[in-house]
Amino acid sequence: MRSRDGNCTLSCSFCTLILLSSLALNASEYLISYRSIVKDAILYNETLHISKAMQKCTGTPQTSLILPKQNSENIQKIIHNKMDNFITYIHKLGISVEHKEENINYQNSSTTILTMHTRCFKVDFNDNFARITALK
Amino acid sequence: MKYSLLLSALLSSAAFSATAQTAQIPPQTSTIQVVCPTGTCTTPPAVQKVQVINPVSVYTPKPKEDVLPIDSSLRIDVVGQGVAPMNTASPAQAYALAKRAATADAYRLIAEKVKGVRIEGDDLIKNMMVQRSTVRTTVRAMVRNANVVETTFKDGLCEVEMEIVLSHAAFAH
What we know:
The complex is a heterodimer. Chain A is α+β, with helices and mostly antiparallel strands. In chain A, about 25% of the residues lie in helices and about 50% in strands. Chain A has helices at about 10-25, 75-80, 85-95; strands at about 30-40, 40-50, 60-70, 95-105, 105-125, 130-135. Chain B is of the alpha+beta class. Chain B contains 3 helices and 7 strands; from the N terminus they run αβββαββββα. Chain B has helices at about 1-25, 90-115, 170; strands spanning about 30-35, 45-50, 75-85, 120-125, 130-145, 145-155, 155-165.
């Protein structure tokens, strides 16, 4: 005869799996990439992609940036409120510069692309601040 | 008789002085030890006397010097310029956009100074006339730890002064 808790192992492993996956999804680690295009000394396009990391990042923490939380734990809102500070921080971490300039019949045109490739950031929320730390 | 004796004395003294002058310049000799390079020679290395007629200075390359000496740093300053677009909603937006463009220009200038520029040029000449003249320059670099020193915005032009400090330790990997 089958006992009442006969399927305990299966249910326990299922619960553990859900718990671990939820922990992994709730980890405050984000993947961020940045790219700005400047054409003829005018900003043409700027993109900042932020997404939650689906798996745990590896790497040692680098310098941190502290931004005010403003009663929100949405990292996109926090960053967009202090976009200038965050972009300066990203630039300091290291940015790839690609510049092309063309002079055809004495008419000049130039394109500069600044790129930060997708990078993992750890975010710790305090009472009033969010500490963003780059992982390398 | 007296004159002949005097003449002979003069001639002998002149001849003696001439021999003395030639004796002062000995033939330039130098010793070169010839060593068997492969070590298969049966005879022991002989010492030869070689007369150096016209010594020529042999080019010896200098040891490679570091561009940036150890325990020293190099500061590079640049001023990037950016312009606000025509269709901006407000002066603040114009300033923000111009500042981004100026920052990118400053990064480009740093990359040009530190890493260098690749330049390609093409001229198309037809019937002895230049049809098309093209100059392309490209820069690719990774810039880290550059600091914005000052930002100015005047008459739609934004200027960002940026500096980077290069140290020997940063490149001694």
